[in-house]
Specification:
InterPro entries: Erg6_SMT_methyltransf (IPR050447), Methyltranfer_dom (IPR025714), SAM-dependent_MTases_sf (IPR029063), UbiE/COQ5_MeTrFase (IPR004033). This protein has 145 residues and is of the alpha/beta class. The protein contains 5 helices and 5 strands; from the N terminus they run H-H-E-H-E-H-E-E-H-E. Bound molecules: S-adenosylmethionine.
């Protein structure tokens, strides 16, 4: 699968993304989150949304996935700095997620589908790894006021 993410993971790009939290970037999802949920955050970038999601599931967990390792050390450092321990970060391609069917209560992606080779295949993968009755959540644009 060709990689088409044309933005890099330079410090300035990651800083631009790292102001994001579940509160400002996934407010639609928050009412549906239960404290024991197991959440997958695909294309997690600097991990700031992932870490804020993990704080909402103290009895559950968050897994952040990126197709390259570049942003993951910063994401792990952020989790450590925030004292968040119910989170792991690993490499994985959204087109072929390295998880069993039905592994998560919520599968989330923020501003990822617009950057990838095959969004339909990605959505199929996200659906495959969510539990029956779970939630697949994608948000692609943000309107700032
Ligand atoms: C615009 S950034 C969004 C990062 C984060 N979700 C956020 O909103 O702060 C898109 C992210 O998708 C990741 N990405 C691109 N192609 C991917 C793929 N095939 N599988 C997983 N992640 C991918 C990029 O590395 C990048 O970090």
């Amino acid at each position: 699968m060709p990689q088409v993410y044309t933005t890099d993971h330079s410090k300035s790009v990651l800083q631009t993304h790292s102001w994001r939290t579940a509160q400002n970037s996934a407010p639609h999802l928050i009412p549906h989150i239960q404290p024991t949920h197991k959440i997958l955050d695909v294309g997690c970038g600097p991990g700031s949304i992932s870490v804020s999601l993990a704080k909402l599931v103290p009895g559950g967990s968050v897994t952040g996935v990126e197709y390259v390792s570049d942003p993951l050390s910063g994401a792990r450092a952020l989790a450590q700095a925030e004292g968040v321990t119910n989170i792991t970060f690993q490499e994985g391609d959204i087109h072929a997620l390295p998880f069993e069917d039905g592994s998560f209560d919520i599968v989330h992606a923020h501003q990822v589908l617009q950057h990838i080779a095959d969004p339909v295949l990605a959505l199929r993968e996200m659906r495959r790894v969510v539990k029956r009755g779970g939630i697949v959540s994608c948000r692609e644009s943000a309107v700032l006021t």
